[in-house]
TrEMBL record:
GO terms for MF: zinc ion binding
Protein name: AN1-type domain-containing protein
Compositional bias per record (Polar residues), positions renumbered to this chain: 139-149
SMART domains in the cross-refs: ZnF_AN1
Amino acid sequence: MDMDLPDIGSHCEAHLCGDRDFLPIKCPGCQKVFCRHHSSLDAHSCPSLAFKSITPGDETTSPRRDRCFVTTCQKPTLESMIVDTTEPEKRVIALCANCAQAFCAIHRHPTDHACPKIPVPTPASEKNIEARRLLEKNFPSTSSKTPSSAIPKLKPKKLPTDPKKLARLRAVELMKMRHHAIPADPRDKNVSMAPSERLHLKVQVKIQNGSGSSGATDGQEKSFWLRKTVGAGRALDMIADQLAIKISDSNPAHFEKLVPGSEDDPIRLRNDELLAKQVEDGETIYLVVGSNAVDS
């Protein structure tokens, strides 16, 4: 029986190493591949180090690289090594998917930099809230109906007020959305379109005043992508259809978004303007359904 390892990854090209790494890193200097222990220029004595000094009359220097977010590490981040790509819309964001910080090759995994935001199991209380919503919607009780006001509302997540942290958070969210988002318009399902022409959004449903004309549940989330030429009103209709939400005069709906530092005072989006002019790619917006969502 052939017991050889599958042809995945590559052997480290550092002298006296040769370990197989399933996530090898290509050196930008010598173009060879290395394991995480020998990926830095110093670790494998990269020949490109000999050309880093500035010769008289030569003002050209290598670009400044950001250091790893781990305070004791002086190695450059993976993000700083690929940020200069000529096609930024096609590159993969090299940030931690949990804390949105930039790390070197050695500390790139959440467990290697003691990530403070490693996902934890959903608390039982939050699961119970969602279960109660589903039970009330699908199996209403005529004898002991629990009022919808007794079910706690899930509070919206607060956005970081630091512009750099907010940009990193949205970059990570956008990376996830590009993998999971579905077209809001079913006719675009088999359409090939460049990422720069798409608007990716995470839509969260907010049910007001116990609206019963909605097929969605309060707090439900789904990621969509739309053409950047679509108006907010048209986008509202398409996404509502996807979520089985019936919009009418008695059950109106609208989009709104949060502002960092003012989460309790959301901004309502205009239906008569392009959605791409009112939100950023990778942003989270709210589809508000109910008697308080008076149509504009």
